[in-house]
Amino acid sequence: MNISDIVLQYFFAGLRVGSIYAIVAIGFNIIYNTTGVINFAQGEFLIIGALLAISFNSLLVFIGLPGVPALIAAIILAVFITTAIGAAIEFAFISWLKNPSVLRLIVITIGISIVMREGMSYIWGIETFALPFFSGTEGTSIKIMGASISPQDIWIIGICVFLVLVLYLFFKYTLTGKAMRACAANRTAASLCGINVKLMITLSFMISAALGALAGCAISPLAKTNYEMGSAFAIKGFTVAIIGGLGNSMAAVAGGIMLGLIESFSVSILPMAYRDAVSIGILLLILSIKPSGLFGKREESALKEY
Amino acid sequence: MDHKRYYPIAVLFCIVIVMQLLLAVTGTSFFLKELTQAAYYTIVVIGLCLLIGYAGQISLGHAGFFAIGGYTSAVLTTFDFSIFSSSPFIRFLHTIGFIIQREDLYGKQLLTFSPMVAFILAVLFSALAAIAIGIPVIRLHGHYLAMATLGFGVIIKAIIDATTVLGAHDPITSVPGFSLFFGLEVSSKIPLRIPNYYISWGVVIIALVICINLIHSRAGRALRSIHGNEVAANSLGINTTRYKLYTFILSAVFAAIAGVFLTHYNGSIGPSEASVMKSVRYVAIVAVGGMANLWGCVLMSVVLTFLSLRGVFGSFDDIVFGAILIAMMLFAPAGLLNLTRLKLWREKILLMIRKYAKKDSA
Amino acid sequence: MKKNQLLFTCALVSSLLITSLLFFSGCAEEVKGTIKIGAIFAETGPIAFLGEPEVKTVQLLVDNINEKGGVRGHKIELIFKDSQASSEKAINFANQLIEEDEVFAIIGPTSSGTSMAIKDICENGKTILMSCAAAETISNPVAKYVFTTPQQDRYAAKWVFKIMQDMGIKRIGVVVEGTGFGKSGKEQLLKYAPEYGIEIVIAEEYSIKDSDFTALLNKVKANNVEAVVNWSVFPAQSIIPQNMKQIGFDVPLFHSHGFGNIKYVETIGREAAEGILFACGRLLAPEQLPDNNPQKALLLEYKKLYEDTYIEDVSTFGGHAYDALMILVKAIEAVGVDKEKVRDYIENLKNHPGTGGVYNYSATNHNGLGMDSLVMYIVKDGKFVLY
Question: Residues C257, C349: one domain?
């Protein structure tokens, strides 16, 4: 194997995880933008989405539906239910609080993530599951310019690109999207313009939940799904959100790819077991030096009302 | 000196003694084990109470400091340095008594650090870590601070899980006893159960005395003003950053000391001591105990930790603490046993009793 | 005011006392005349493929024994604890079993890490431990009260090297999980490789929390190795073969004897599992043994009993638990319910056929099995086939 092949191999591995981190970060940002809350339970949306899809898929296959339609139906159902869960969380825990302090909200969302995680462990058990591969089997390998990757990698990167595109168009051109951006910029002004701020907040939770569920389903065949994997995604997603500057979703994409690549290439130097430590080290580094993120401006983050 | 503030400590002292006698009489002395462990965890909670309740700084990674203390001590007292015996530095440490020779359970001769030296090094190392992480982080607010402390806790666990010398996923076992003065030894040996029980609560009482003195001192008042309104405190000339940092370091040292003692008591320490769930647990206990109510924190810590260690919550352990956290933050953000609320309850109960008494006589 | 305050305090204190007294009434009632045996297994959790067959086997055997009247007239009382592969839980359970339940002996735990964690506790507590884990460190240094039943990892390693030597393989890569089992395996592999003329070019430990090993395997692939050895029991064992195929890493893959449950093959998937080589006990293919083999009869009997009761294939892990329990029972039958005598009996046990092999314990050998207790298997068409 020559050097360029090896580098390409690491590159694709990094791109795969990086795109998932970017989606998680965007999920953080959407909720943060409309509410100022960092939703620690974001990672759990990925897992619950994947677990639901796995269960539905088994059920549908069991009652006789062929493989591909069963998978698609399962994923759609899972995303739908996760979205409902997102809305329920916002309704039950966030919507009725009056002027909560940041500390309070952080701790509440942490509590929510714990309860969700434990809930999943009771319903599904603590074993590891996986969704079937979207195309091919667990052994299929595609050669791209000298690197061999699984077709699932292409699905993951493709789905993430698609989601980013859809979100960009949504926020730029649709009325609802623009309304949400208005809430992010200035909530009082937005409500004065007749925008239903409460609805926008609920919507932001729903969108983030849906994003998470889709991402979780996409990565499940490769990275498997286990009830406690949510917090790892949440921390890495948060790191990416911070790198790009909290609230800035386009920068989050860049940040995600960056973190993914750094993580992947770090394995070539350090033992793989330190991979997580590297990511968190980057988080601590950025928080110590430039908490407003590589792409954010310091005054902007200081002025942000939270 | 206002002696009234020390009365609760005397009460605690009495309860500790009564408890032990009660257990001895009913033949359930094995509960002493969990009570001793709960005592050590309470020390972490006391430090955290000071940080969250009085200095107003959240820390979601305090289990990391506990782990630094415990693991440093565990590694130094179990790692066999005889593979380095040719190094002059190691031989020097041996001569001055920092490194001692001892025999393990299976008759093998080991060269390890003496537990007392390991303890001091563990606390120093933990303080250094607190300074290293504290200085950049203490200026942060809100989510940034929370995430930074969370990140700290997670990175400590990640490093432990990845490093063979620290046992990776398995606990470090065969940690020897720790000889204190007066022939007292912190260890898991069954005949030493009762002395160890008193040692642990002794350390808790010392920690409480330190805290009470701190709270009623000038530094304590400065802390309370920072918690009230940091900008105002700053304008009064209080160096808020420095006070917050010192409190952070103090609470980290408390956690590290608890870590060292508990490791030697249990004879082992595992990576779960550094987990996020442990950190969250400490915060949940401080929240229930009343953020700034030291005694509430001690009470809730002992009760909840004891029940958890006895397995009363069964496999619902984590979810209980998670639910407590949510409930606290939703309905009682200043803490459950917080002093104003307790006064309110007392008023209500007294009112009810008086009404009832009136009804009778009417 | 003062009277009310006093009332209040009295009420508080008495309620505290009452609650604490309620704890003390929770002591379990002892059933007289039973032999209490503690069983710590990872029945649920990441290594359920190992722990579940162990629990099922022990339950089945104890039910059978108790039906026939027990051991020397005493029924066996099993106290199961689910460690979920957590060493910290295992430590708590071991302390509880020894101090509060006062068990006669402990069977298990499932994994090497948990066994190491409670080795000292059992030794100090003078309670016999029949471990179902394979790391050499459990029986070396020898602890008087600790015995193991699985074949040791060093023999599994030597078998792997033997086959590699036959295949002419010289450069290999080794990946292991960061647990007691993996670390011990790595030690043994590094130790014995030179004997077989094999060079381990890269040896790395991975985290059991990881679910994606492509980066690590890329690293190994970049070293131009001719074979890969993976030593694990956690789910990584199912993921690494898949990752290897995905990155087009087409070299022989060798596993440890922690692979002895067909469910692993099902999890990996037929395509990616094809061709995996590993050394394991004879339980996986007893029909092919010659009739005069001392193990054949009991292997077939156990296999039929287990498969008829649970409608699933036997695994060697259930076998380890079988051996642990049966050796203990045999000892009690022979010398009575006396810890020291039972310990001495087991330590001097010779020529005892079990599912893992023919056991020969001694004061310096608390493992009892040798190289001949293992045979080589290969995965073909989703099944374990003798190599």
Answer: no
Q: Does the CA dihedral A254-A260-A263-A265 come out positive or negative? A: negative
Report how many domains make up chain C: 2
This complex has an ipTM of 0.87
Residues recorded for chain C: 387
**Do both C318 and C271 map to the same domain?**
no
Q: Which chain C residues have a beta carbon less than 8 Å from that of B164?
A: 178, 183, 205
Q: Please give the residue range of the domain that contains residue C203.
A: 153-280
Same domain? For C139 and C189 the reply is no
Same domain, C145 and C172: no
How far the first Cα of chain A sits from its last, in Å, is 52
Q: How far is CA C334 from CA A45, B350, C357, in A?
A: 58, 70, 21
Residue that terminates a domain, selected from C225, C249, C280: C280
List the beta bridge partners of residue B347. Answer: none
Per CATH, domain B31-331 is 1.10.260 = no
Residues 6 or more apart in contact with residue B202 via CB below 8 angstroms = none
The set of residues, in sequence order, having a beta carbon less than 8 Å from that of C273 and lying 6+ positions away, is: C241, C264, C265, C379, C382
Domain check: are C59 and C143 in the same one? Answer: yes
End-to-end distance of chain B based on CA atoms, in angstroms? 48
Q: Do C224 and A1 touch (CB under 8 A)?
A: yes
- Segments in chain C below pLDDT 50: 1, 24-30
Q: Is position C261 within any domain?
A: yes
Is residue C77 within 8 Å of C35, Cβ to Cβ? yes
Q: What is the pLDDT of residue C32?
A: 62
d(CA A18, CA A255): 8
Q: Dump pLDDT digits (tens) for C274-327.
A: 999 999 999 998 888 888 888 999 999 999 999 999 999 999 999 999 999 999
B164 and C CB contact within 8 Å:
yes
Residue type, B181: F
User: What is the rounded average pLDDT for all residues in chain A?
Assistant: 88
Residue B292's pLDDT band (boundaries 50, 70, 90)?
Answer: confident
DSSP character at residue C27: P
Domain end, chosen from C256, C280, C304, is at C280
Chain C interface, Cβ < 8 Å to A: 44-46, 48, 84, 178, 204-207, 209-216, 218-219, 221-222, 224, 235, 239, 242, 245-249, 268-269, 271-272
Measured in whole angstroms, the distance separating CA B41 from the mean position of its chain's CA atoms is 4
Residues paired with residue C106 on neighbouring β-strands, in sequence order: C38, C129
From the list B137, B146, B316, the residue facing A106 with the nearest CB is B146
Q: What is the DSSP string of C95-146?
A: HHHHHTS--SEEE--SSHHHHHHHHHHHHHTT-EEEE----GGGTSS--TTE
Q: Are residues C207 and C229 in the same domain?
A: yes
User: What residue type is B110 in one-letter code?
Assistant: L
Query: Which amino acid, residue A248?
Result: N
Say which CATH number the domain at C136 has.
3.40.50.2300
pLDDT more than 90, % of chain B: 33
| Cis preceding-peptide flag for C141 (omega within 30 of 0) | yes
Query: Could you say which of C24, C86, C124 has the minimum Cβ distance to residue B26?
Result: C24
How many other C-beta atoms can be found within 10 angstroms of the C-beta atom of residue B108?
11
Domain contains C382: no
pTM score: 0.88
Same domain, C262 and C176: yes
Q: What is the tens place of the pLDDT at every residue in C17-40?
A: 655 555 544 444 445 688 999 999
